[in-house]
Design goal:
By secondary structure, the chain is mainly β. It is 5% helix and 38% strand. The chain contains one helix and twelve strands. A five-stranded antiparallel sheet has the order 1-9-6-11-4, with no helix packed on it. A hairpin with a 4-residue loop joins β7 and β8. The longest helix has 7 residues. The two termini are 26 Å apart. The structure holds thymidine-5'-diphosphate. Thymidine-5'-diphosphate binds next to β4 and β5. Thymidine-5'-diphosphate (TYD) binds next to β4 and β5.
Length: 149
């Protein structure tokens, strides 16, 4: 496997991880929110997946992506997303469907503390590519440089 020397991307402060509030259309019939690529999130959407039926106590993730950027929304229920740049970590609690967490490329991430019946929607900037994954935290720490979380 060929690894990049550094994960260079999110060196720009404006491009760090962040909670993004989504439009919310209040309506007595039920509320509505939506996401437009580029307009609300800083990438074009190449893929959408969702995580559901997570047994209590399970942890998802535990890896970083070399290129993929993500936007994670708790469509239902709640969970924690823990981001780590090799030197510090931050925990984001997601529990509403009208905001989400932007995760830049090059960030180590885990998802845990899923509530019963929680549903995590993930928008991704590239198609699924197993070679984009970094699974070894020690390797990750060697590669990660100036990644903002
Ligand atoms: P993975 O990304 O490792 O899940 P998590 O980070 O939540 O633990 O994916 C789990 C499995 O699903 C793995 O075998 C790859 C496969 N998968 C796809 O085929 N396409 C996808 O878009 C994703 C996200 C995963």
């Amino acid at each position: 496997m060929v690894l990049q020397k550094n994960i260079s991307m999110a060196t720009n402060k404006n491009n760090g991880a962040m909670i993004i509030q989504l439009p919310k259309n209040y309506d007595v019939r039920g509320n509505l929110s939506f996401i437009e690529e580029i307009n609300h999130i800083p990438f074009k959407i190449e893929r959408t997946y969702w995580i559901y039926d997570v047994p209590g106590g399970e942890v998802r993730g535990g890896h970083a992506y070399k290129e993929n950027q993500e936007f994670i929304v708790a469509l239902s229920g709640s969970f924690d997303v823990i981001l780590d740049n090799g030197t510090e970590s931050k925990t984001f609690f997601l529990n509403r469907s009208y905001y989400g967490l932007y995760v830049p490329k090059g960030v180590w991430r885990q998802m845990c503390n899923f509530s019963t019946n929680s549903l995590a929607l993930v928008l991704a900037s590239i198609k699924f590519n197993p070679r984009d994954y970094i699974y070894d935290y020690e390797v990750y720490k060697e590669m990660a440089r100036n990644v903002h979380i």
